[in-house]
Design brief:
binds zinc ion, alpha/beta, globular, 13 strands, 335 residues, single chain, binds N-carbamoyl-L-aspartate, eight-stranded parallel beta sheet
Amino acid sequence: MQLTLSSPLDMHLHLRDGKMLEIVAPLSAKEFAGALVMPNLVPPVTSKEMVQSYKERILQVCKDDRFTPYMSLFFLPEYDYEFLQELKDTILAIKLYPAGITTNSEGGVDNFSLEALAPTLEAMNELGIPLCVHGETNGFVMDREAEFIPIYERIAKRFPELKIIMEHITTKEAVDALMRFENLYATITLHHLHITLDDVAGGLLRPHLFCKPIAKRPEDRMALRKVAFMAHEKVMFGSDSAPHPRDKKEAPGCAAGIFTAPVALSALAQIFEEAGVLENLQKFVSDNAQKIYNITPPKKEVRLVKEPFEVPASYADVVPMFAGQELKWRVESVL
Ligand code: NCD
Ligand code: ZN
């Protein structure tokens, strides 16, 4: 059995910088035609110069692969129209992080009143720049995403023309909210389709499955699977592949993030096939994102075959999801 995916896209990807960038970026560039690159570097990406030079560093390590890094800017509430107009053609979206909620988000937003967010949101609305949101409060860890939904609703109502992407949704409440507003869209990760909190902490603690937002309950996973497996036009694949060196994961204070980029297409083929919906994977990993973001990625045909793929124990010192395990599909060629 085989499957060809045209121009797969990963609409939420952490590529980091420096040595880590060199390790991970070529792995995404090989199998994906493009990715939305997250801006949570240290310091965060907050200017046109920073976006441009980060994009150059990415392209440099990806060498001659046909791969478009779609760039994002780190949301600050005080951007204005002129500033964003200058940047509009350099970025695809602006990413909003609540302050301190996840890796490298200390400079994020701590006041979610519409008045506080207005300067940037009004300019984005006028310029047609999509807003990507890490939607979690600082409440109890299992309730953070559901508690954030009123904030999504407030922004969606106030700016009905603004495209808002609920990043890496994990709960049935988020799926319900997504359906209530025309201007809400969502990314869904591989890991949240695959695991629940039980896989992270139900037996021996699995640091390489620890991420934000934390994996939730079986009924939440079911709600995500429902919309992903039917490739609902409001959802698209965003891996949230978030590499950390082994010593930051296998540590008393484990960094949040799961490294999935090099296993994503194989694992997605496997779980879509198991669900009997392999024919919907193309929409989930590319077509929906092209429509939502109005982008045309480079042409790339990725051929997968149903043959065992032995997932490496690590890529340099980064441990991927499914490390040392066997997946049922492998990428055979990329044309
Ligand atoms: C991400 C990271 O490490 O940058 N971590 C994660 O657990 N997903 C940040 C994020 O997207 O939350
Ligand atoms: Zn992320």
